Amino acid sequence: MNNYDGLYILNIQGKDEGIKEAIETIEKEIEGFGGKVHGTQKMDRRRFERVAGDLDSGFYVNIQFSVEPDKIEALRGKLALNEIVYRQFYLKQEAVAA
Fold first, then answer.
1. 3-state secondary structure of 54
2. To bridge 43 with a disulfide, which of 32, 52, 60, 65 should be the other Cys (CB 3.0-4.6 Å)?
């Protein structure tokens, strides 16, 4: 399994009470692909520097997890179908020598 940092920008316009449920949904999707969530960091709502559409801000969440490398694209595709996930970015973590 590889370790990843996933940065998710959530579309929660007018529904701040849905943040917890949205994060739980993402974590369940990761676990559904055989992954393991190691930590979650809520980063707060931030305004976008460049507004390209109706959405002018999003709630940022960073999730550290591990999953098999061949599952990351399937996870990305599945979360792209979720209307609350506005953007998603993944950074593979290098193994730390012990």
1. coil
2. 60
pLDDT of residue 51: 72
Say which amino acid occupies 96.
V
pTM score: 0.85
Tell me how far apart the alpha carbons of residues 23 and 81 are, in angstroms, rounded to a whole number.
Answer: 15
In a domain? residue 54: yes
DSSP 50: S
Domain annotation covers residue 98: no
pLDDT for 46 equals 83
Write out the residue range of the structural domain in which residue 31 sits: 2-93
Distance from first CA to last CA of the chain, Å, rounded? 17
Split into its structural domains, the chain has a count of 1
- Distance between CA atoms of residues 46 and 55, nearest Å: 11
Amino acid at 50: R
**Domain harbouring 53, CATH code:** 3.30.70.60
E-only strand ranges, 19-56: 36-47
